[in-house]
Amino acid sequence: MPAYDTVTEALSDLKARGFTTDFNLAFDAIHCRNSGIRLSPSDFEIVEHYRFEGNTDPSDEAVVYAVESKDGRTRGVLVSAYGIYSEPVDDALLAKLKMHG
What global pTM score does this model have? Predict the structure, then answer.
């Protein structure tokens, strides 16, 4: 896996490598607002992940996930804060993300 210094660098390279869908966390799934694609934890795999720790500001902490649908038709990224600012999610989704976070 490549090594990245910043979230922006990771997102740029992942997009260039075909991870073009921008996912956000929904309570029990990941969702792309632009396309309407919604994937439950059983519908996608995390193929790469990168953790960034804020050196001076804990709010800069994030994990970038490169995800692919199990049918191989959708590839994208999910950026998730962790720690005090993380979003509430369903147990199954949380377990999948924690495996790689």
Answer: 0.84
Sign of CA dihedral 67, 24, 54, 91: negative
Q: In what order do the strands lie in the sheet with 30-31?
A: 38-39, 30-31, 21-25, 75-81, 62-69, 44-52
The per-residue pLDDT for range 44-99, each reduced to its tens digit, is 999 999 988 866 555 568 889 999 999 999 999 999 876 544 566 777 887 877 77
Specify the long-range contacts of residues 66-71, CB closer than 8 Å, at least 24 apart. Answer: 66/14, 66/19, 67/19, 67/23, 67/30, 67/39, 68/19, 68/44, 69/37, 69/39, 69/43, 69/44, 70/42, 70/43, 70/44, 70/45
Question: Sign (positive/negative) of CA torsion 19, 30, 72, 61?
Answer: positive
